Amino acid sequence: DPTFNLTLGVASxxxxxxxxxxxxxxxxxxxxxxxxxxxxxxxxxxxPRMATERPVVARGEAVHVPETVxxxxxxxxxxxxxxxxxxxxxxxxxxxxxxxxxCRVRAAATAAAMCTSDLYWMDL
Length: 124
Fold this sequence. Notes:
The protein is mainly beta. Helix content is 10%, strand content 47%.
């Protein structure tokens, strides 16, 4: 049952408008294409020219990880080199696709190891 402690940050570069993450936005964590954990983010807003962040705990339950993937994960964790894919998925879909952001994060990354990315369309 994997658990990931993440920090979600939102910043507005606009002088007049806030930037928000919608209530139904969720985050998914995967390793080598294997989904491990997810969490609903909840609404988070930053006022004009402001930034804010909040902790998000993504959890998985009875996750099946293929043996070869598990072996690679164990070895990379031992070396301190495991890299996880984190996807922030926005609510709603169009033609079986969802708007979101994806990045790669090292295990035990510090707050200085921030991940930013542009929005893109993900196949569901």
